[in-house]
Amino acid sequence: MKTDHYARSGRRWALGAELVYGPIAAELVAMSPHSLAGRTVLDAGAGTGAASSALNAQHARALATDLSAGMLAWDAAARPPCAVADIRALPLADGSVEDAVAAFVLNHLTDPVSGLAELARVTRPGGAILAAVFSNDSRSEARDRIDAIAQAAGWQVPAWYAKLKATAVPILGSRAGMASGARRGPRRGTTRRRRRHRARAAGPLPFRSPYLRRLARRDRRRTCRCARRRRRAGDPRRHAAVPAHSRVPLRPGPHNSAGQNPALTPDPPAHGQRQITQPAAPP
Given 4, 134, 239, 274, which is the most exposed site by the fewest CB atoms within 10 A? Predict the structure, then answer.
């Protein structure tokens, strides 16, 4: 299990750092291309609830996740429903939220594209994904002086934080980095297509999961619809999808004594299969 570096930081963040991050989170939420009122919005990497408070102010139904239980525990009674979860493996179904907010969490990942991909997976098509990260060009004289005074008093930068600032933060810390990360993330529905592919590859094996059974039935219906459209449009590929001859399995072999080619003679129908007969040729 990974170490929770923020386990005892909830109070300090809520009463200190949130004075800075709160207004930024509110501005991020206000950038939504549509109204969030009444919509279910995921606050990924919620921390002590800066973005959740902004979502509540917009009358959205917030759902919070964070990898740190200590951060979620701060003022838990007044917080929205929450779950301890990694943004790279959210315990949510595909398209389960209408919008998503990620305020200063993607910059904690050395592979932020995986986090963006998960946000895209759980967000319904047409929803907004609002994200903010630390900027590589951010400079503050006051902050640098405070850090210098704290270090002179004996405070040391934690090794994990120094590594985070050196490796993870610069990846999305520029406009070009954010645009590149968004482009590299998979499109919505990729995970569903991958699951359907696995369901098809499983062949005749029984699906114990009701979800996989529904996917298999839906795939069969889509295949039939596509074949019908191709037949109506006169597409020659229809013969590859739906053979002109009967779907009853054929057995190969030379012509028999009756002059019939067994290769064109169907096997006897299996149990539950209807016999297909050809009309007799006129004498």
Answer: 274
